[in-house]
Amino acid sequence: MTENVTGFGGLSSSQDEASLAAFIARQIVNGIATTTLVKVVAVEAETVDVKPLVQQVDGAGTGIAHGTIHDLPYFTMRAGPCEIRVKPRVGDIGCAVFCHSDISAVKATKTEALPGSRRRYDWADGLYFGGFLPSGAATTLIEIDAGDNVVITAPTVRVNVTEAVEITGPVTTDSEYRVDGVKVVGSQGGAITDPTGGATVDAQARTAITSVLSALRTHGLIA
User: Fold this and answer.
1) Per-domain residue ranges of the chain
2) Angle at 189 between CA 183 and CA 190, to 5 degrees
3) What is the pLDDT of residues 140-175, one digit of tens each?
4) Among candidates 12, 13, 21, 94, which has minimal Cα distance to 51?
5) CATH fit for domain 11-130, picks 2.40.50.230, 3.40.50.2300, 3.50.50.60, 3.40.50.20
6) pTM of the predicted protein model
């Protein structure tokens, strides 16, 4: 039984030695993995599994889906022990870039090493950079707006410090401050007048009360 198979070559590819050499060169280049858009299908501690989104095409122009590429290290912004981390999520679309040589030994040891094999520009030697073509609006956001202000939008912001939180400048809130879930400072209270009049006058008590009221006004707790 004879089966017709459509290849990538045409009549122009076999006109002469130059066109044949050009065709062979194109086929070699087509086997080089460079950069492509991918979708995350699984997330591990430091790596992701991804599926390329641009399909392969056979000689007849029929699309062929890619398989899954496993264990691509994903990017975090890091310097020494300091890191800003946004862990990828399943369904994210990002960019996979592929290295010149086999990086498996460096991935395993996290230090300088020989290539794990002689493969070059291979799909197995990829790195993942996320954040392309989002499908919806972000719900948790750190943004530098047009006025150079840093805006953080999130359900909850947790700050874990080992020593202290230092803030230079005023702090504004439209709600309240809590310690262990208990409100300690809220909106400013109404004005309270200093004690005056009355049939019985305790000068020492009035002096103390006036000092307390003055301190409350200085700290903005009352008007």
Assistant:
1) 11-130, 168-218
2) 165
3) 989 999 999 999 999 998 999 999 999 999 888 888
4) 94
5) 2.40.50.230
6) 0.72
